[in-house]
Design goal:
This protein is an alpha/beta fold. The protein has nine helices and 13 strands. It binds zinc ion (ZN).
């Protein structure tokens, strides 16, 4: 369903994919409980809360908030859930320092503008700042997940390490839905991209481009036919095929 500022779709049974104003999040429902994967910018909080209600849930009833990575456009509302509802927030071990706020590995809108100036980049930067893009990510109570914990959560997500965009970036495989939440390891659009469909983020956003490419190989090893990316719309396509498109496009990047 289309709402002001976001669209929520039940992409698979009990898997609610939310396309937010600038980034996406996913709600995994089990009965009255849920797992929230990512959660937009700090300024997206009202939308995140509303989308949880759209899924028939109460924002207070989360079993966990998981982050694919600790950038402010994905982890921007996690601190709120921790503070307001004592919802536990988890990341991979390699992302933990970023999530608690002692380390930051993210280009600023200013750096992007200087290095890749175009009107659409300016629009992205302006929007990012307005949505709270300069608010430091700092979830002091954040913990590191383990596989058993993840398996016990609504949706039973399986962590698939896909470092590159950030050192601890993680995708989540959802076996029952044959779906994969790819975060920023593979996206289907971005405010500064002129393309639609499967693609990598602009190299300026990659912490380690070589590892980002290995991450694509990890994704291609999954039995998934539904892609839930960190930016851009959901995509019903085999992940192997999607990775193939990304790789072909990487050789012909124009923007
Ligand atoms: Zn992102």
């Amino acid at each position: 369903m289309k709402r002001a500022g976001y669209t929520v779709t039940e992409a698979a049974p009990d898997v609610f994919f939310v396309e937010g104003p600038a980034s996406n999040w996913t709600i995994l429902r089990r009965g009255e409980r849920f797992t929230l994967v990512d959660g937009g910018y700090p300024g997206d909080l009202p939308l995140v809360r509303e989308s949880i209600r759209d899924a028939g849930l109460d924002p207070a009833d989360g079993d966990a908030v998981l982050v694919t990575h600790a950038h402010v456009d994905h982890a921007g509302t996690a601190a709120h859930f921790a503070r307001q509802y004592c919802t536990p927030v988890f990341s991979s071990a390699a992302e933990h320092r970023q999530l608690v706020g002692v380390e930051k590995i993210q280009v600023s809108p200013g750096q992007v503008l200087v290095r890749a100036w175009k009107p659409r980049v300016l629009r992205w930067g302006t929007r990012a700042l307005r949505a709270g893009g300069r608010t430091p990510v700092s979830v002091l109570t954040a913990e590191v997940w383990d596989d058993a914990l993840l398996a016990s959560l609504p949706g039973g997500p399986v962590a698939v390490p896909t470092p590159g965009h950030t050192p601890g970036h993680t995708s989540f495989y959802l076996p029952a839905a044959k779906a994969v939440i790819t975060g920023d390891a593979l996206v289907t659009g971005h405010a500064i991209s002129t393309r639609n469909g499967p693609q990598s983020l602009h190299p300026i956003f990659q912490h380690d481009g070589v590892r980002a490419d290995s991450a694509l190989a990890e994704l291609a090893g999954l039995d998934a036919s539904l892609i839930l990316p960190g930016h851009g719309p959901a995509l019903k396509m085999g992940i192997v095929e999607a990775v193939d498109v990304v790789r072909r496009r990487a050789g012909t990047r124009t923007s």
